[in-house]
Write a structure and sequence with these properties.
By secondary structure, the protein is α+β, with helices and mostly antiparallel strands. The protein folds into 2 domains: 51 residues, RNA-binding S4 domain (Structural Genomics Hypothetical 15.5 Kd Protein In mrcA-pckA Intergenic Region, Chain A, Roll); 182 residues, Pseudouridine synthase. The chain has 6 helices and 15 strands. The C terminus is likely disordered.
């Protein structure tokens, strides 16, 4: 296994951050400093970071969490606010959040001990879809949905195509494959519909379902495999608009 991947699986850091750690000369293999992230290693190689030997990679675990409002998407908070990591099963070990949700946004967020999986699920080039339901101000017309589907200009650049549909007069379901800061809120405000309430209901093939606010559950091996497989077949395409999905 590549050294950077080994570090990510061991829970040291995400794959990209692990590559930086290796290049900085902080990793030794059998007592010798190694700066090549592609170096082949295994559990018998004697890998250490900053002088501390690594234990063999733990079993990969992923938790689905229903984040309530007021809970922050960090491992710890300097202001003492509750965090999503605290909602996982006690004794789960060190977990990475997969992406983030604003403190006032509720819904599905994932936690895992696999830094490489977290990277794959959040990096834009993998186009993993995330679906949100937003209660908004105003009557949502078809021209606003069309603009969302085609992509629109924000202050940090044009958004990619999204899937958008109106569920009722003041509720919109929006699926995106990007993850810019407060992107869904900014997109809806840009088409004249400020968000009143926002909830993420799906991440890739995984749906929030009946998971209650504040609750967490460990994903099955099948669910983890589906997440790891890559982009959902129902994700929005690049470079062309889509009609609203029928569900």
């Amino acid at each position: 296994m590549r050294l950077a991947k080994y570090l990510a699986h061991a829970g040291v850091a995400s794959r990209r951050a692990a590559e930086d750690i290796v290049r900085a000369g902080r990793v030794t293999v059998a007592g010798e400093v190694v700066t090549d992230p592609a170096r082949d290693v295994d559990d018998s190689s004697g890998v250490a970071v900053d002088g501390a030997p690594l234990r063999p990679a733990r079993e990969r675990v992923v938790y689905a969490v229903h984040k309530p409002a007021g809970v922050v998407s960090t491992a710890r908070d300097t202001h003492g606010r509750p965090t999503v990591v605290e909602l996982a099963t006690p004794g789960a070990g060190r977990l990475y959040r997969v992406g983030r949700l604003d403190a006032d946004t509720t819904g599905l967020i994932l936690l895992t001990n696999d830094g490489e999986l977290a990277h794959r699920l959040t990096h834009p080039r993998f186009e993993v879809p995330k679906t949100y339901r937003a209660r908004v101000r105003g009557h949502v017309r078809e021209d606003a949905l069309r603009r969302l589907r085609e992509g629109l200009e924000l202050e940090d650049g044009r958004t990619g195509p999204a899937r958008a549909r109106r569920l009722d007069d003041g509720t919109v379901e929006l699926t995106i494959t990007e993850g810019r800061k407060r992107q869904v809120r900014r997109m809806l405000e840009a088409v004249g519909h400020p968000v009143i309430e926002l909830r993420r209901v799906a991440f890739g093939p995984l749906r929030l379902g009946a998971l209650q606010p504040g609750a967490a559950r460990r994903l099955t091996a099948k669910e983890v495999a589906e997440l790891s497989a890559g982009r959902s077949a129902r994700s929005p395409g690049r470079g062309r608009s889509r009609r609203p999905a029928r569900r």
